[in-house]
Description:
The chain has helices at residues 22-30, 74-85, 134-144; strands at residues 8-11, 31-45, 50-54, 60-68, 98-107, 110-119. By secondary structure, it is α+β, with helices and mostly antiparallel strands. The chain has a four-stranded antiparallel β-sheet with strand order 1-4-2-3. The protein has a two-stranded antiparallel sheet with strand order 5-6. The radius of gyration is 15 Å and the shape is globular. The termini are far apart.
Amino acid sequence: MNQTTVHQIFVYGSLRSGFNSSAYEYISRYFQLFAPAKVRGLLFDMGEYPAALPTTDDHFIIGELYAIKEEDEFGWALEQLDEYEGINESPEDSPISFRRDLVEVFTEKGNTTAWIYWFNSPVQNKPIIASGDVLEYLHQQQQKK
């Protein structure tokens, strides 16, 4: 699939609707929720944020699939998300390293392709989020306190 024709994003962390973050307010201005979704990958607890890594195994990250509302705004909207994720900054400015790639997304409405932000730094000694669902994981962590 041609990268310029993909106008969807898959989100699994603070951009999900359940977080009610300022970043979600931004995303909902430019993107429409299409469906609950999942992608093949592993999710790690990095402390302040989750980190997703791709896998070919049957491990899934739970999230949401969004489609752009106005296709001509997609490039600009994606640049803003890139900035939020820190992928345009130099390593000296931002120690957090993400990269944006295309990924196969699974929904009840069928499979599709979307952009995702994968973590691009080491995750050794960080806890894995076994459910693949960061909202569920955070809820469980709060109940333990």
